[in-house]
Amino acid sequence: MRKALAFLLVAGLLTACTDEPDPGQPVGPAEPGTLRVLAGSELADMRPVLEEAAKATGVTVKFSFTGTLEGAEALASGSADGAYDAVWFSSNRYPAAIPEAAKRLGNQVKIMSSPVVLGLSSSAAQRLGFAGRPVGWAEIAEKAGQKAFSYGMTDPSASNSGFSALVGVASALAGAGNAVDANQVAAVTPKLTEFFSAQALSSGSSGWLSEAFEKRAQDPAGKIDGLINYESVLLSMNAGGKLPEPLSIVYPSDGVVTADYPLTLLTGANDDARGAHQRLTDHLRTHDVQRRIAETTHRRPVVPGVELGARFTQKDLLELPFPATRDAVDALLSAYFNKIRRPSRTLYVVDTSGSMAGDRIEALRTALVGLTGADASLTGRFRGFRNREEVTIMPFDTTPREPRTFVVPEQDPRAVLAEIKSFAEGLNANGGTAIYDSLDRAYTVLAPVLAKDPDRFHSIVLMTDGENANGRDFAQFQTGFTGVPAQVRQVPVFTVLFGEGSGDELSKVADMTGGKVFDARNTKLTDVFKEIRGYQ
Question: 2-112+261-297 and 114-258 share one CATH topology?
């Protein structure tokens, strides 16, 4: 069970009929009438439907949430065996391409669907001339290359929506009429580079991406024109009433990749789980429940005879082919991170105070070293430091220490990654804890390089195991934040709770900077650092 948890970067739990348990705990042993499901985190919005289903069928669903690659890795490694009865991802296409994962996939029942499309603010759609007419991915890519608009998208190694978007765009731009293969990736890379040059926001989850977009929509300095996401997410955002103007949904005329959400029994599930799976899927595919799913989640019904509601303005969609082999998908992911997308500039502000001595400083060393290529797992391969990335590590204790910057080259990054590894292994713990002096220093380091080279994804990671004890306090930092250059204030700070770190203050730091809090108190720091990579 402990091994299974190591793969869960988003360790959340959801019970269909009872209050949510501690998200740091496993879903527990097999129980009659309970289906333990490893799922994509976006399925949290199915809770009302599953609560009703539990009353009708006697089947309670216990979710443990994970990302695309984590789920495939858990299946392939066997760590999901015995820990879960079923998996429920937006698609089984990627795990089905890995023989060791595919052999564990049993009965698959499609429950609902949602295409990955482009949502643009109404004014942006009008400005681009996209409103009211067919638009293909090639035209979207041309406008993106001209920087005529900006958009956000989830990390394709962390979220199914970003993964589907990358595959869909690549297949459409390849123009071959069949699934893009490993050999075609190099040929389509220039077009993809043009397309992704307009990406202004990355995220490890569809939920955080939509929340960040809504916040930025209220701020002219940080406003983004659109999102590539599930149709269901975009429709939910329009229905939520938090946007200053609605999103206009663009359904590319040359095709989309659609999530079909198969609730999939694992081959090792026992007879009780098999019966529960049958009862639950039969119930979820009834006409009334299909309509209820569409109303609740804005996903499309998949059962014949259930009409699409008026919200689904585009009824018939062309489905793009999906790569049939893991080699093709892996080649596409590698090209995306190392050649195609805008490079990152990442600044790690890490606590090396005396309280970090022993296991804690060793955990920090291991987490940083894992990002240099030492982590050979499937997730480790795509969450490490990437070619063209600029990485700065600034330890702090009683005062901020001298930052060290590493520039990972576009070709043969091994020597620089070895330097980062050596630096991380040399971190030692002593002294006090100057959190806010160190964060201020991070802004001082970042401001001139951001002004000189703004065309990157920028982020700060702040990790501490204690409360502030030296230098300025949070109130003083908060007051001084208004004096930080506007461009630098837009850089999200991802805070990491570790040990006795102040959750209240770190949450406020994340909120005021547009970042996110990550909890490493009950999860391995290595896994948390990998999870953060989806946002950088």
Answer: yes
